[in-house]
């Protein structure tokens, strides 16, 4: 039986990885602090803080594992310490990274050979800088985390996954949940840009399945994990929201320049809206060639809505506070469009 360790596992990506592994009958251990929920039923749990060397050393004694999937690594020096402690007891290190490691995201189209931000593998949480419409500390440090895993475990035993926008049930940031709730409320809905703008979000379950596949097939290397370029459109996304919520919402599309002139914040006030050419132009051909499969966007929208209804989820995550335009501000812009 395949045995894996998941660092995290109670929130979004880690939870989906555990669910995918359990579906295959694998033995799964989750390591987390135990303060943000519980992993799926059937998971063994070890509580501890990955930033505490004693906790990580104790965790290593519970091994060995065929692989570790690191979904909670954000600071290079912490990932370095974790990798050093676990290297003797894991065969493969799967690190969940991000397309934000690319120097040109979101401005230019990307492949795995695109330039990556430079960050040392022992950098602390202060490394890097946030540049408007450019690199971020998050991206710099994720790049350093990748390197920490690669130099410690070896590139042949390391798999780096760089997802783009990840949606689906249990999404705590609240981007798709916000659109679903807003469309469900009906009326005139301020809609950003043009309905034909292509988008390529990946369902969290498809990302998780690919992570598990990387373990099954011992896939080394770096993979962008997104839906194919041109996968769907913003208009399609909102139409799906209307369909699954049975809403009679009227979508009022505002050109990019109108929203920008009104000071609407990209990515937050209008979730998933960003004007740069590279946002939805991330090649994931390598991952698709190695077995990544993406379900239709309508399935992601439907299942997220069903999860919202079942849980009445109201995210308390700090990033969720940034999401969505106020009704007053939306009405002001809508009035100016008529």
List the SSEs and their pairings.
Blueprint: E1 3-7, H1 13-23, E2 27-32, E3 44-47, H2 53-60, E4 65-70, H3 76-86, E5 90-96, H4 137-153, E6 158-163, E7 166-167, H5 175-185, E8 188-192, E9 198-199, E10 202-203, H6 204-216, E11 221-225, E12 232-233, H7 234-245, E13 250-254, H8 256-261, H9 285-289, H10 297-311, H11 327-337
Domain NAD-dependent epimerase/dehydratase: 4-225
Pfam families: Epimerase (PF01370)
InterPro entries: Epimerase_deHydtase, Lipid_A_modif_metabolic_enz, NAD(P)-bd_dom_sf
Characterize this entry briefly.
With 338 residues, the protein is of the alpha/beta class. A seven-stranded parallel β-sheet has the order 3-2-1-4-5-6-11, with helices on both faces. The longest helix is centred in the middle third of the chain and has 17 residues.
Quick tags:
36% helix, 338 residues, two-stranded parallel ribbon, 13 strands, 2 domains, seven-stranded parallel sheet, globular
Written description of the protein model:
- Pfam families: Epimerase.
- This is NAD-dependent epimerase/dehydratase family protein.
- It comes from Nonomuraea cypriaca.
- The protein is α/β, with parallel strands linked by helices and 338 residues long.
- It has two domains: 190 residues, Rossmann fold (3-Layer(aba) Sandwich), CATH 3.40.50; 116 residues, UDP-galactose 4-epimerase, domain 1.
- It contains eleven helices and 13 strands.
- The strands form four sheets. It has a seven-stranded parallel beta sheet, sandwiched between helices. It has a two-stranded parallel ribbon with strand order 7-10.
- Strand 4, helix 3 and strand 5 form a beta-alpha-beta unit.
- Helix 3 packs parallel to helix 4.
- The chain is globular and about 65 Å long.
